[in-house]
Amino acid sequence: HAPAEREAPMARPRPRGGPRRPPLRRGRRGRGTAQRIKRSRRLKANNRERNRMHNLNAALDALRDVLPTFPEDAKLTKIETLRFAHNYIWALTETLRLAGAARLGPEAAAGPGGGGPVEGSPSPASSWSGGAASPAPSASPYACTLSPASPAGSASDAEHWPGRFAPAPPPRRCL
DNA sequence: TAGGCCATCTGGTCCT
DNA sequence: AGGACCAGATGGCCTA
């Protein structure tokens, strides 16, 4: 199909990459009916696949929108978004747990937390100071330490997480 | 220029 | 049969 068709507007301007390359024209010699049908099915499948990936990206964008970043308009990569979301959820869960424990007394605070932040990640008990009472993302100290400029996720983990959420606690399944 | 990130194409597999 | 999902391949753009 025409390149113009492939230039469908993205959900948001791409900070990386560029316009899509023109379609590959591999094995276009087939002129028979069977070949045309096959080609037609392939093109339809390509369209569906493109649409599917757009939906996936839209969901990823929606996820980015609810994650705090600094600066505000910094765009996380896909892998960063997934890892960040995973750890952010974990941090919020810890916050809720600690908030509940604070109400029940110190013994409850030592209750089951399910692992903890992995090495390199801020400890909820120490770093989420004051966060227990206000789980709002924007008020989170984690949000302030987020640095989209750091190459998190591109190599093995802990060394790349100094400025953002560290990978998830070991017992949990990491992305 | 190399490496990272990305969109797209493609063929295979599974499911309805 | 046709659609959804997946992973590998490919090539473009950007940054260090």
Overview of the structural elements:
- The chain is built from six helices and no strands.
- 44% of the residues lie in helices and 0% in strands.
- It has 175 residues and is mostly helical.
- The chain has helices at residues 3-6, 33-66, 78-104, 106-109, 124-127, 141-144.
- The protein binds a DNA duplex (16 and 16 nucleotides) through α2.
Instruction: Flag low-confidence runs.
Output: 1-30, 111-175
SS element count, helices: 6
Distance between the termini: 36 Å
Q: How would a textbook summarize the main sheet?
A: none
Derived structural class: mainly alpha
Shape call: elongated
Q: Please, what is the average pLDDT?
A: 59
Which percent range describes the beta-strand content? under 5%
Sequence of secondary-structure elements: HHHHHH
Computed CA radius of gyration, to the nearest angstrom: 22 Å
Task: Summarize the SSE layout with pairings.
Blueprint: H1 3-6, H2 33-66, H3 78-104, H4 106-109, H5 124-127, H6 141-144
The structure holds a DNA duplex (16 and 16 nucleotides).
Organism: Falco tinnunculus (Common kestrel)
Domain BHLH: 40-92
Biased composition (Low complexity): 119-156
Write a short abstract of this structure.
The chain has helices spanning 3-6, 33-66, 78-104, 106-109, 124-127, 141-144. With 175 residues, it is mainly α.
